[in-house]
Amino acid sequence: MSTPTVPPRITNPLSIPVIGIDDHLPAVQHNALTPAALRRRFEAPPSWTPETQGDGKAFFERELSHASVLVPLVMRDTGLQVLLTRRTDHLRDHAGQISFPGGRAEDHDADAVATALRETEEEVGLAREHVDVIGALPHYTTVTSYVVTPVVALVRPGFSLALDSFEVAEAFEVPLQFLMTPAHHRRHLFEYDGQSRQFLSMPWTGLGADGQQRDYFIWGATAAMLRNFYRFLAA
Fold first, then answer.
1. Contact call for residues 126 and 72 (beta carbons, < 8 A)
2. Which of 43, 115, 133, 228 suits a disulfide with 50, CB 3.0-4.6 Å?
3. 81: closest CA among 155, 181, 28, 136?
4. Can you spell out the DSSP letters for the chain?
5. Residue 112 CB: number of other CB atoms within 10 A?
6. Is the pLDDT of residue 33 over 80?
């Protein structure tokens, strides 16, 4: 029996056709996106099922590694903002992509939360004294063989960032309300040699760290974890 062909890496996701936009799904209401409402939701979670638990078949025959990312919800006067990063272009995995701060677990990390906090501090310089962890979302397995725990936290303003220039090209914020509105969620279909892979994108146009307006293409694992967050809040 032949081994199924693994679709190659998607190097230009903007070129992959959009097959649907999920504007038929309701947005999470504004009053459910306050710090107090999110705390209550994680303290008494509903019965729900994540929409996606992984990207699909791994690219490589390599052992699964545990990792954590922080989903940092910055408490701005205008509402919660999700702090995201753009990875540098030379990295081995997920180069140039929009991602949450985070990375691989180390032996000395006490748990997934410790990994997320340490990696976030190392990558973007966000001090732990500004971070209040309120819960976690289900594991997500990437095509690069990482089992990722998304750790959700409220972030108090007043922090300053210091980016690790080797890993992080820039950091920016996107309104949580925008990301929790499925009318902004696009479905793409990638087909190759009889195989197919679907992924979500959430294109965002906003101000970068330099104050200039630019386009950000949020897709792949980051978009999938945000979609799971939507399902959790909409349940």
1. yes
2. 228
3. 155
4. -PPPPPPPP-S-GGGSPEEEE-TTSPPPPGGGSSHHHHHHHHHSPPS---S-SB-SS-SS----EEEEEEEEEEEETTEEEEEEEEE-TT-SSSTT-EE-SEEE--TT--SHHHHHHHHHHHHH---GGGEEEEEEPPPEE-TTSEEEEEEEEEE-S-------TTTEEEEEEEEHHHHT-GGG-EEEEEEETTEEEEEEEEEEEEE-TTS-EEEEEEEHHHHHHHHHHHHHHH-
5. 21
6. yes
Percent of the chain at pLDDT > 70 equals 90
- Domains assigned to the chain: 17-234 (3.90.79.10)
Q: What does the pLDDT look like over 71-119, one tens digit per residue?
A: 999 999 999 999 999 988 655 554 578 999 999 999 999 999 999 999 9
pLDDT at residue 192 is higher than 90: no
* Average pLDDT value for the chain: 91
